[in-house]
């Protein structure tokens, strides 16, 4: 059981007027279910490195759409556990090397399908092993590497925080045990990535980027430091930068002067929600933009209207709709 | 990440002919055979040149396959360790070349291998400029060179990277990976040329002048480059300290930057990136914004107020002919709000005028109505 995460087979929408725009829930569910049946395409094989990501995105979308059981649990569980390495890390697909991002996705999937008992059955002390894999990737300056090869990125830091948090191994969740990671060093690193325009970059000195804003704000939020660190001034400044991401089409971009893209509905939207400034953008217009990016016939959501759909933009489009309270979609935790 | 900007085509046009499907099936079989071959060889610790060439083949077809990049590094690590541990006599020709490069033969061999791999990456980078793993591998190669080779040799490699990254940024002046890599390259060159006493991660600043000039060049070729303006803002504190700038020089410097950005804003007040830079310059005067290091030292309250007055005046003049430009009203409101905080008497700003700006802004920018409502309340307008 696995899902293709490359561009989908698409269809051109004909004559859907804005007034008729609605979320085609059944089509999206069917689209996600169909992703496992594309093994006859070269693309399916070339995107094997996106397999665990694809399952995580597809499953999250199904949960939000109210169809959590649309994919067979046993198949998902077997697949995820087949990506587990002896050191507690997960790869992107069976046989692929362990990496912090795919370990994070795997733990998210296990959480959604209630799979931690199965993890323990496969590997005694499994949860602790996974947590140790993550903790060992922390560098002396607080950052996290993605894997043994040492590349660091604020995305990895956020991934480490939420994964440990899901596993119950963040230091504040175990006050009586010696901490597995140095939270203070990690948040100090995030603060060094904070720019005077209010946003956050991928490393100290790097320009602000919505994706990095999401990971940094998310990490500060998991660490419980978001409100005390930013304060109202900091939230205003960050909120101003984020709200300027919305363009006339209603969609959001990732950086100044870039094109709008559905995936930023989530990165920007949830960051705004975490700092209580979601009302600083036009949520109705954002909703319309996301709905326009749907393939109304075959299901799935694309980065922009008329583009190829994929499961990544499908989940972030639906999560964006959930943030703004679109009827019939489950609630999403902004972090 | 994922598919971006790929036009959706009707499903019917994707219905492939039997011939096309056969062809695709064949491609899949070939791809999987190549993949199997590479994986089996690496699992069997076959770190031969053949295996290495096979990883090249596979990565050229699929540069996102991160595990194969890891395998490539395993092979290289193995080869480097073997070269550096070898005590066999090099050929006369090899020794001569090594001598010319001022390196022991084993290290010279490592240098050549690294250069070859850097070369392999160039067409891939050009084809996939946003692929994390290619930039990653490049950075690993340079890091490894720094570890195994003497500074004089490693620094030459890093300097060549500066040329490469300039070329990449010439092709796409906003490439995120490119700007990040540029920072890494500059740090490495500064560290390697500072007799090794530079602390890891610290900046000696000996490239700050040329980097600052680079941002000037980038901005001149295209004003609307948020990345270049941002980089410029990051260099300013370093530049001033490397120039040992005194109070007077700092003030002149700041004024020149204000003049530059004001001229640019007159050219295009609708350009967001220019306003971010103006905002940055103003933030350096604001002790409440700890993310912007002060340019003026010392910068007192009175000086802050004088700058606010001057800039409010200059921004107000930009309104003429650009009455529909929301950024002007945003700047006027932001700077006026701050002005009223530092200068209790107000003087140059009237609340009535601020209300008018806010009204205009709400008319032009209804998307952010919630923000303007909060601003109204916060400023008591
Ligand atoms: Zn996207």
From TrEMBL, chain A:
Keyword field: Metal-binding, Prenyltransferase, Repeat, Transferase, Zinc
Uppermost EC category: transferase
GO MF annotation, one: Rab geranylgeranyltransferase activity
Cofactor(s) listed in the protein's UniProt record: Zn(2+)
Domain Prenyltransferase alpha-alpha toroid: 24-334
Pfam families from the UniProt entry: Prenyltrans
Ranges in coiled-coil conformation: none
Protein name: Geranylgeranyl transferase type-2 subunit beta
Protein encoded by which gene: BET2
UniProtKB/TrEMBL annotation, chain B:
Keyword Repeat found: yes
Species this protein is from: Rachicladosporium monterosium
Similarity comment: family membership: Belongs to the protein prenyltransferase subunit alpha family.
Lineage: Eukaryota, Fungi, Dikarya, Ascomycota, Pezizomycotina
Protein name, UniProt field: Geranylgeranyl transferase type-2 subunit alpha
Residues covered by region (Disordered): 1-21
EC number: 2.5.1.60
Function field: Catalyzes the transfer of a geranyl-geranyl moiety from geranyl-geranyl pyrophosphate to cysteines occuring in specific C-terminal amino acid sequences.
Keywords: Prenyltransferase, Repeat, Transferase
Molecular function via GO: Rab geranylgeranyltransferase activity
Broad enzyme group: transferase
Substrates-to-products reaction catalysed: geranylgeranyl diphosphate + L-cysteinyl-[protein] = S-geranylgeranyl-L-cysteinyl-[protein] + diphosphate
Pfam families: PPTA (PF01239)
Domain of life where this protein originates: Eukaryota
Gene3D superfamilies (alphabetical): Protein prenylyltransferase (1.25.40.120)
PANTHER family in UniProt: GERANYLGERANYL TRANSFERASE TYPE-2 SUBUNIT ALPHA (PTHR11129:SF2), PROTEIN FARNESYLTRANSFERASE ALPHA SUBUNIT/RAB GERANYLGERANYL TRANSFERASE ALPHA SUBUNIT (PTHR11129)
């Amino acid at each position: 059981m696995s899902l293709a995460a490359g561009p989908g087979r698409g269809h051109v929408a004909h004559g859907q007027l804005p007034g008729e725009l609605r979320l085609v829930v059944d089509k999206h569910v069917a689209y996600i279910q169909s992703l496992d049946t594309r093994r006859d395409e070269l693309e399916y094989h070339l995107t094997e490195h996106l397999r665990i990501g694809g399952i995580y995105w597809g499953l999250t979308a199904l949960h939000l759409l109210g169809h959590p059981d649309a994919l067979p649990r046993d198949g998902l569980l077997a697949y995820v556990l087949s990506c587990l390495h002896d050191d507690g890390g997960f790869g992107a697909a069976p046989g692929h090397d362990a990496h912090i991002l795919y370990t994070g996705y795997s733990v998210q999937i296990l959480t959604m399908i209630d799979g931690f008992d199965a993890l323990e059955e496969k590997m005694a002390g499994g949860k602790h092993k996974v947590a140790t894999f993550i903790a060992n990737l922390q560098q002396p300056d607080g950052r996290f590497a993605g894997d043994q090869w040492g590349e660091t990125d604020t995305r990895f830091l956020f991934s480490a925080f939420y994964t440990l948090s899901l596993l119950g191994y963040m230091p504040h969740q175990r006050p009586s045990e010696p901490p597995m990671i140095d939270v203070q060093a990690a948040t100090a690193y995030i603060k060094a990535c904070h720019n005077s325009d209010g946003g956050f970059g991928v490393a100290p000195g790097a320009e602000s980027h919505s994706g990095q804003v999401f990971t940094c704000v998310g990490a500060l939020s998991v660490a419980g430091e978001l409100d005390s660190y930013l304060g109202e001034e900091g939230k205003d400044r960050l909120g101003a930068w984020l709200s300027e991401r919305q363009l006339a089409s209603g969609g959001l971009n990732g950086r100044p002067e870039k094109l709008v893209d559905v995936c930023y509905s989530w990165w920007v939207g949830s960051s705004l929600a975490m700092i209580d400034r979601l009302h600083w953008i036009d949520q109705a217009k954002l909703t319309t933009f996301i709905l326009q990016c749907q393939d109304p016939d075959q299901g799935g959501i694309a980065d922009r209207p008329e583009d190829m759909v994929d499961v990544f933009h499908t989940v972030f489009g639906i999560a964006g709709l959930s943030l703004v309270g679109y009827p019939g979609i489950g609630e999403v935790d902004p972090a | 990440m994922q598919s971006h900007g790929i036009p959706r085509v009707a499903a019917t046009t994707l219905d492939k002919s039997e011939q096309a499907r056969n062809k695709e099936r064949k491609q899949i079989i070939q791809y999987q055979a190549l993949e199997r071959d590479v994986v089996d060889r690496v699992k069997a610790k076959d770190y031969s040149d053949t295996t290495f060439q096979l990883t090249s083949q596979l990565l050229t077809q699929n540069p996102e396959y991160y595990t194969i990049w890891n395998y490539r590094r395993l092979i290289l690590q193995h080869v480097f360790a073997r070269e550096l541990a070898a005590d066999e006599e090099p050929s006369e020709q090899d020794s001569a070349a090594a001598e010319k490069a001022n390196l022991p033969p084993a290290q010279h061999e490592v240098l050549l291998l690294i250069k070859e791999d850097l070369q392999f990456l160039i067409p891939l980078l050009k084809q996939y400029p946003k692929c994390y793993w290619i930039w990653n591998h490049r950075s690993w190669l340079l890091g490894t060179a720094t570890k195994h080779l003497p500074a004089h040799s490693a620094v030459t490699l890093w300097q060549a990277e500066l040329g490469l990254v300039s070329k990449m940024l010439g092709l796409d002046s906003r490439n995120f990976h490119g700007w990040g890599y540029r920072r890494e390259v500059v740090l490495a060159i500064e560290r390697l040329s500072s007799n090794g006493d530079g602390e890891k991660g610290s900046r000696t600043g000996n490239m700050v002048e040329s980097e600052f000039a680079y941002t000037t060049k980038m901005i001149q070729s295209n004003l609307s480059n948020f990345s270049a303006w941002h980089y410029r803002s990051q260099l300013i504190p370093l530049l001033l300290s490397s120039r040992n700038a005194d109070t007077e020089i700092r003030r002149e410097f700041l004024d020149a930057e204000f003049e530059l950005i004001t001229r640019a804003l007159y050219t295009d007040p609708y350009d967001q990136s220019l306003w971010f830079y103006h905002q940055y310059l103003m933030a350096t005067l604001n002790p409440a914004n700890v993310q912007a290091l002060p340019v003026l030292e010392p910068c007192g309250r009175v000086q802050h107020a004088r700058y606010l007055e001057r800039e409010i005046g200059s921004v107000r003049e930009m309104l003429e002919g650009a009455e529909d430009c929301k950024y002007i009203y945003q700047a006027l409101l932001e700077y006026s709000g701050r002005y009223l905080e530092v200068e209790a008497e107000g003087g140059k700003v009237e609340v009535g005028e601020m209300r008018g700006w806010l009204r205009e802004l709400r008319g032009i920018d209804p998307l952010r109505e919630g923000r303007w409502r909060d601003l109204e309340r916060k400023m008591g307008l």
